[in-house]
Amino acid sequence: MISYQEYDAYCASLKASEQVIQWGDAHVWKVGGKVFAIGGWSKSDYPFVTFKCSPGSFDILKEQPGLRPAPYLAPRGGKWIQMYDDPGLDPESLKLYIAESYRLVCLKLTRKLRGELELEV
User: Is this prediction's pTM over 0.70?
Assistant: First the structure.
């Protein structure tokens, strides 16, 4: 599991990322106004972490212990996974999936906005 502090520090390290607190005190990270990671809703020091992924990763991850299709996002057709329990993903693997979520969201931004944010994807 990853702590809120580690989660926030990693998301903040991604270029042009912004944090907002919303949806019941969740730590929501965005790029270009679009969500790429959500941490929150846990009663411990370790947040449930939600991230976007490719269809192939979604199909694999949704079957793993401690991971599930993200409530509210996956049922609407999005490929979002939520890590909610152990064993889940180790911190380094989780960071790789957050980075991929960030990249996938960046690709959906307009070329103009990517240029304004100086994003290279």
Answer: yes
